[in-house]
Inverse folding.
């Protein structure tokens, strides 16, 4: 027993080289983490700092003249609340449809009983590499009456080849004995999918949900091409407009403030920089808050779906 303990202690004892390697890895990873976090930190401290200093690029490491006027005035800009509602709706509904379609198709493409399974799967995958272009896509959307239509945000992205491939790979890693046992008990394809597969493939469904939610939340090009009705503008498109018209919007925000603040100090006067950075934070924060709840499923889904055998 003592010999075994001595061997284990010797086995786990760190050498000088191991220690140097560990310290180097921690330093490198810490530096990479700082590089990833700093842009968000930089934008945030500029939104709560004196706007005149922020416009000059004087805010680098810490906030100066802290105030929250930017957020108060940005939240009162016309159309922001409605755009937030549209973004939330398209993210929730679009993510739900995409997850359901990816899970079902990923499952069906593993079923030998499916007619033309390999052909349909190859056709779906082919859409990842071949694209007709913007004009044919727009004409198709117009003929389907999806211009100036909320469903134009949802239906085109329901079938996602990449997400289907992820789900199919995950389903293939599930022991076939589960499905065979259900078939012996008389379960059909739909019953197997809803009662057997869905509880098992929840990790990959959560992974697909993250991808779909981020894509829906950040999308604005479909609005640029399909929508002219301002009531259907999402938050990201409002951000896109603000980034292009930040100077005029800063003047609008200043004139729309209360009369008692008409002569406010330059530190709290809206600038093009403050508008850009404030709206950026408002748009990014919601999706950042959602991600931690799916992170454990995300890691598990990617790893299990990527390793077979």
């Amino acid at each position: 027993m003592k010999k075994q303990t001595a061997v284990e202690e010797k086995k786990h004892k760190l050498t000088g080289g191991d220690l140097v390697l560990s310290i180097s890895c921690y330093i490198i990873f810490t530096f990479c983490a700082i590089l990833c976090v700093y842009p968000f930190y930089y934008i945030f401290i500029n939104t709560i700092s004196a706007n005149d200093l922020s416009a000059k690029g004087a805010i680098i490491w810490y906030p100066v003249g802290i105030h929250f006027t930017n957020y108060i005035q940005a939240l009162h800009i016309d159309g922001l609340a409605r755009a937030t509602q549209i973004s939330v709706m398209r993210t929730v509904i679009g993510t739900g449809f995409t997850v359901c379609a990816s899970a079902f198709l990923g499952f069906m493409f593993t079923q030998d009983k499916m007619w033309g399974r390999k052909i349909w799967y190859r056709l779906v995958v082919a859409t990842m590499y071949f694209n007709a272009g913007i004009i044919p896509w727009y004409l198709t959307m117009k003929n389907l009456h999806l211009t100036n239509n909320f469903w134009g945000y949802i239906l085109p992205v329901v079938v996602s080849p990449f997400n289907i491939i992820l789900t199919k790979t995950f389903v293939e890693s599930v022991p076939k004995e589960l499905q065979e046992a259900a078939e012996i008990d008389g379960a059909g394809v739909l019953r197997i999918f809803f009662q057997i597969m869905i509880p098992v493939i929840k990790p990959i469904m959560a992974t697909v949900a993250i991808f779909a939610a981020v894509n829906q939340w950040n999308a604005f090009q479909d609005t640029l091409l399909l929508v002219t009705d301002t009531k259907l503008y999402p938050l990201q498109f409002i951000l896109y407009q603000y980034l292009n018209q930040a100077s005029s919007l800063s003047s609008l925000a200043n004139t729309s403030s209360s009369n008692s603040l008409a002569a406010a100090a330059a530190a709290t006067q809206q600038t093009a920089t403050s508008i850009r950075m404030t709206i950026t934070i408002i748009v990014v924060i919601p999706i950042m808050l959602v991600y931690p709840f799916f992170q454990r499923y995300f890691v598990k889904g990617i790893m299990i779906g990527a390793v077979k055998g």
Residues 80-231 form a domain with the MetI-like fold fold (CATH 1.10.3720.10). The chain has two domains: 2-77+245-306, 80-231. Residues 107 and 193 are 7 Å apart (CA to CA).
